[in-house]
Amino acid sequence: GGPGAEAAQAAASAGAADRAWAGHLVDWFCSDRQLPAAAWREELERLSVLVIESGSFRNLLQQRAAKLTDLDLIVLDECHHAAKKHAYASVLHGYNPDIPGMPQVLGFSASPAGGGSTSVVEARVDALLALLHAQMHVVHEEEVQMVAPSPAEEEQCVDPRSVDIHMHNWLLERVVWVALTIGQDLHAMVEALPDSAAATKVELLRCSAELDYAFACTKGAGNQGELLAWAAGARMLAATWRLPNLALCL
After folding, report:
1. CA–CA separation, 184 vs 170, rounded Å?
2. What is the pLDDT of residue 24?
């Protein structure tokens, strides 16, 4: 998957028609695990099924390292993205089923046309089918259950990438900045309140003290858990008192 958003991939069943299928080897490639252009032919001969990020495969086509006719079958997940400048559209730009050796294309989508009026939806579906040179088949849940068991959830822990660490640190810096901004706003409000608003002052001072404690925990241990816990309680305060920074940041 990718940042964001979208993690659309193209899975291509590779190899010549007369190749041996013993082993049914499968491998995957993406932006974090690139398939070099020079290795395309070797991987094509080695693998039965090659799963590759659509942008990576588009680059191989543009570099003329790969050809659509190298493949027997192209499977597109979330195929409704095949429009405008998306990599799917680029990959299929030169696709013509009438050319000898062209692979078959199988697209999957749970939302082939998105929202809109009936005419808009029909136009989008027609455009998608024309691009894929395909016909639509609606699969019902009962049909899926006949050939495939219900999927099981599985959680896997992986080592963080450098981009993940960078994003974590950036978010932590933002949390600290939010805490400082809210703290300044709380202190300013306490100073501006008249003596007659003693109960309000007590409430704001309590919230400010809790923020100071949470901020100290975050700064010392590098863990924003205390700060986020404080933020949950601060939402209730923001709903009661007019605190622009709280409303903005939470």
Report:
1. 21
2. 74
